[in-house]
Amino acid sequence: MSIMIQVTERMSVLPVSKKQQVIFGLMMCTGMVVVMMTFNLWHTGMLSQMSVPQLLLQFVICFAIAFLVESFIVGPIARKITFSFSFARSSKIKGVVTMSFLMVIGMVLLMSLYGIITAYTARQLEGDSVINAYLHTIVRNFGLALPYQLIVLGPLVRYVFGKLFKGPAAVASV
C-alpha cells in the first residue's frame, strides 16, 4: 500500500509554471533524444562511423528540433487531448499515462520524419521506398520509446523534478 502511495505522489509532481514546464521539457527531451538518437544511429550502422564531434553536433541539432516540436506542437496537442478525457482529469496516474502515451505517439511520428529526411539527404535510403522506411522507422521507434518513456524516463524525470521543485507549487492534478 505504501509503495502505491509513493508512486502516486511521485507521478503527481508535474510542472505548473512556464519555467517549470521548460525545465521538465528539457529533462524529458534530453533523456529521450540521447536514447532514441543512439538507438537509431546504432540501428543504421552510423554510430560507429561518426566521430565524437559529429555525434555532439547531431545531438544538438536533434535536441533543438525535438524540444521545439515537443514545446510548440506535440505538447500542446497532447495536453489538450489529455484534458478532454474525464478519466485523465480524475486520476493522476491515468492522466500521466495518457499524456505520456500521446506525447510518444506525436514525437515518434514527427521525429521519425526528421530521421527519414536526414537519412534521405545523407543518401542512406537509395533504393528504398521513403514511405516504407518511414513506416518501419515509426514502428521501430515506437517499440522503444513507449516502454522507455512509461517505465524508465518518465518516472525518473518526475522523481528528479520533484526533488528540484519540492512543495505544493510542483504538485498538480493532471
Automatic annotation (TrEMBL):
<feature type="transmembrane region" description="Helical">
    <location>
        <begin position="142"/>
        <end position="161"/>
    </location>
</feature>
<protein>
    <recommendedName>
        <fullName>DUF2798 domain-containing protein</fullName>
    </recommendedName>
</protein>
<dbReference type="Pfam" id="PF11391">
    <property type="entry name" value="DUF2798"/>
</dbReference>
<dbReference type="InterPro" id="IPR021529">
    <property type="entry name" value="DUF2798"/>
</dbReference>
<keyword id="KW-0812">Transmembrane</keyword>
<feature type="transmembrane region" description="Helical">
    <location>
        <begin position="55"/>
        <end position="75"/>
    </location>
</feature>
<keyword id="KW-0472">Membrane</keyword>
<feature type="transmembrane region" description="Helical">
    <location>
        <begin position="96"/>
        <end position="122"/>
    </location>
</feature>
<feature type="transmembrane region" description="Helical">
    <location>
        <begin position="21"/>
        <end position="43"/>
    </location>
</feature>
<keyword id="KW-1133">Transmembrane helix</keyword>
